[in-house]
Every structure is written in structure tokens, then in C-alpha cells.
Amino acid sequence: MTTKPIEGSEPVEDRNAILEKALIEEYLEEKGYTLETLKKLPAEAAEKLMKEASQYASLKLEEVAARAHFIKELHDDGSPLEK
Asked: Where are the domains of the chain?
């Protein structure tokens, strides 16, 4: 089965992808780089930094997911306060 885009609709970007990119940019900025300056580095150095940035983003995304799951559990398990 193939999915066809709906005419007249705008593509929706994955929220996790937006957050992942922001986290990668954050990591690079902490190291003194941007995605643009990374292109000027030797391939090995750029690849190493991107691997590190991807790992950082991955861990942060897992942290966000774990916190969201924990909060959902708190809300699901919580009973209403009675007077």
C-alpha cells in the first residue's frame, strides 16, 4: 500500500525531528560549531562531531520520552481528591 499526499495540504514535519535537530544544533553550539561551520571541517572531524551530537540528541529525546511517560502514569494513577 502506498500513501499519496492530499492535494492542497501542507506536509507536516515530525515534531521529534524538529526537536532532534534543535538538540544537535545545541550540542554543536556548545562545542563552538554550527551546521554551516561543520561543513568547513575535515570529513573525519565533522563526522565525529555529528556522531557525538546525534548521540546527545538521542539521549535527550529518550529523557523527554521517559519524563512524558512518568507524568502520564502519575495522571493515570492519581485519584481525584475527595472532600
From this structure: 15-75
Within the chain, residue ranges assigned H as helices are 15-30, 35-38, 43-77
Exposure of 33 by Cβ count < 10 A (0-12 exposed, 13-18 middle, 19+ buried)? buried
Torsion of CA 33, 19, 16, 6, to 10 degrees: -100
Q: What is the pLDDT along the chain (83 residues), one digit of tens a residue?
A: 455 666 766 666 677 899 999 999 999 999 999 999 999 999 999 999 999 999 999 999 999 989 989 888 888 876 565 54
pTM: 0.70
Q: Which residue has the cell 554543536?
A: 28
Residue 52: CB partners within 8 Å, gap ≥ 6? 27
